[in-house]
Write a sequence for this structure.
């Protein structure tokens, strides 16, 4: 597939607005302003674009809810928190090609009727902070942002809000709390963000990659864009693949590429010619899969049917050298660290599970531990405010489902066959 | 009593102008204060809270909620080594041990000469070039023990 999203990523100084414009940048604004907001919304709906932040909600439908609310100003927020472990797909847009995101945001805001925008950027990307701010300044100078953009009757203001290291702030409602200067904690819906979002106003939160796609839909048309990749969840996608691979990295591919193609064609196969043991297809909060699942398509429907999820599309590969127990322990240490502490099952459950997983890994596991792990997962499931807790159980349950023998071996032989240990963590 | 520099105050006002509610600039204000003082001590947090117009307790709550705000003094260089799954698969834990031995401190501590703080962190979005770390604002990729030795040598 010819690259669409990453096409200009290696062009020297593509972060400079003149270079960006010379590469056909900001072209979609003219077309969008000609079409009018309703037609732009219709085009995005027709394209089948689904949000790339993890939940894969249809973008056009989310926008429609917001359009229908008669309350102003409306807000559009780009979710650049990129907190899901092993996810690094939004970073190139934030650090190298910022105007592609800004352009996508302007067109989207136009369709939604939003006059204010923020990019909620994770604190871990200081370069992105500088690059985005510089790009926004340039865009204001060229009247791509601000009042009456390019002589139209549309005005849009944009600023960067910098996070400071909290995974939960990537969840859309927690993000808004954080934007408002509070601790980022999940908001119970209703009220929905379409009516009561940022500062009590109608708000749309979309992932960076979702927004980046919008100008391409407008430039190339919904028919062309929607014909790429999988029917169920079409379009191009930046897949970040990591772990035991010959060629880990970012690959822009059509949705619906199989895990096998992703790992063996693009990722060059398993590192050092080893055997594949397990794959996490969509970030740490998605269930891991096995070599049996290699022919599954990377799209929403297929991964769901396989008992997992596409999540952020961050695929992490483990070879036979990996210890699944160790990886599940490390994943749980992450969730324990990031639990906001509001619901007891999530706060206490992740704590317990780190401790149990650590003792299994360190040779002090007991036979009943696996049952305790499962029970704890079931207690968390459906008993938490937000999906962070739900995500935390996936590595454990999928680990036990496919690699139970590994857990049992740890308990029986009183230690990790690979000689690994779980560290005490703070 | 701590007073924020003119520069920091200006930065805070600039941030505040971007929102309908000045409270939204609290995170930016904490960033600016951390840049000036190197850490967010209770006194610094109190000064920030006053400028923004929130209670000290609120600002304190926000500061402790986020892992990138330093609540105690840190070294001249803060080494943030990722040990999340992609980096762990590629050997980050051995590198953590290597760093602990080399610096003579445990994870979370600062060397007695105040040069280095060693911090284990969650994913820093560099998983395609794991293992990875950040020192202050510079990223280092595809790390090995030898590479780390060279990097630290260059910082002395
Ligand atoms: C714990 C948690 C963390 C999340 N982190 C992110 C994130 O870093 N980036 C992101 O785009 N979405 C993240 N999401 C998903 C958002 O809540 C939301 O669905 C998304 O930003 C909507 O954008 P989209 O429709 O374009 O995908 C997270 C969700 C949860 C539950
Ligand atoms: S599930 Fe966990 S992270 Fe989510 S609100 Fe409850 S305690 Fe907080
Ligand atoms: S897991 Fe280490 S950078 Fe992502």
């Amino acid at each position: 597939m010819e690259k669409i999203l990453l096409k200009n990523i290696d062009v020297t100084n593509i972060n400079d607005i003149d270079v960006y414009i010379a590469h056909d940048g900001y072209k979609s604004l003219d077309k969008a302003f000609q079409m009018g907001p309703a037609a732009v919304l219709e085009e995005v709906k027709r394209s089948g674009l689904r949000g790339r932040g993890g939940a894969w909600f249809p973008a056009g439908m989310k926008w429609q809810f917001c359009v229908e609310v008669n309350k102003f100003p409306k807000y559009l927020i780009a979710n650049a928190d990129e907190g899901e472990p092993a996810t690094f797909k939004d970073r190139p847009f934030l650090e190298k090609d910022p105007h592609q995101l800004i352009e996508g945001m302007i067109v989207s805001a136009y369709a939604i009727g939003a006059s204010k925008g923020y990019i909620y950027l994770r604190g871990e990307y200081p370069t992105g902070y500088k690059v985005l701010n510089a790009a926004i300044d340039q865009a204001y100078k060229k009247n791509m942002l601000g009042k009456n953009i390019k002589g139209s009757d549309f005005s849009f203001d944009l600023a960067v809000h910098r996070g400071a290291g909290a995974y939960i702030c990537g969840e859309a409602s927690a993000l808004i709390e954080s934007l408002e200067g509070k601790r980022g904690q999940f908001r119970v819906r209703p009220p929905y963000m379409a009516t009561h979002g940022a500062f009590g106003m109608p708000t749309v939160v979309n992932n960076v990659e979702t927004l980046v796609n919008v100008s391409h839909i407008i430039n190339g048309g919904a028919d062309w864009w929607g014909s790429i990749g999988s029917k169920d969840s079409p379009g191009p996608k930046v897949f970040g693949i990591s772990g035991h691979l010959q060629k880990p990295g970012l690959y822009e591919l059509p949705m619906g590429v199989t895990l096998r193609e992703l790992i063996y064609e693009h990722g060059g196969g398993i590192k050092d010619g080893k055997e594949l043991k397990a794959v996490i297809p969509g970030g740490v909060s998605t269930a891991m899969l096995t070599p049996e699942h290699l022919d599954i398509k990377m799209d929403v429907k297929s991964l769901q049917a396989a008992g997992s999820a596409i999540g952020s599309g961050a695929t992490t590969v483990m070879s036979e050298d990996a210890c699944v127990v160790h990886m599940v322990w490390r994943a749980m240490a992450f969730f324990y660290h990031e639990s906001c502490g509001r619901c007891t099952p999530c706060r206490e459950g992740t704590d317990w599970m780190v401790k149990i997983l650590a003792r299994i890994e360190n040779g002090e596991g007991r036979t009943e531990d696996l049952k305790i792990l499962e029970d704890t997962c079931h207690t968390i499931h459906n008993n938490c405010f937000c999906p962070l807790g739900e995500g935390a159980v996936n590595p454990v349950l999928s680990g036990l489902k496919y690699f139970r023998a590994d857990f049992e071996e740890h308990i029986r032989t009183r230690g990790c066959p690979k000689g690994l240990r779980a560290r005490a963590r703070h | 009593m701590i007073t924020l520099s003119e520069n920091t105050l200006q930065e805070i006002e600039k941030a505040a102008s971007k929102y309908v509610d000045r409270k939204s600039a609290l995170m930016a204000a904490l960033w600016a204060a951390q840049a000036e003082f190197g850490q967010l001590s209770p006194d610094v947090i109190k000064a920030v809270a006053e400028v923004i117009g929130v209670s000290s307790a609120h600002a304190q709550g926000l500061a402790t909620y986020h892992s990138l705000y330093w609540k105690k003094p840190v070294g001249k260089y803060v080494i943030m080594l990722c040990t999340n799954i992609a980096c762990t698969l590629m050997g980050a834990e051995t590198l953590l041990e290597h760093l602990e031995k080399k610096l003579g401190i445990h994870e979370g501590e600062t060397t007695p000469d105040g040069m280095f703080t060693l911090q284990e962190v969650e994913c820093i979005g560099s998983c395609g070039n794991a293992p990875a770390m950040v020192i202050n604002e510079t990223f280092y990729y595809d790390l090995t023990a030898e590479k780390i030795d060279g990097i630290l040598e260059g910082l002395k």
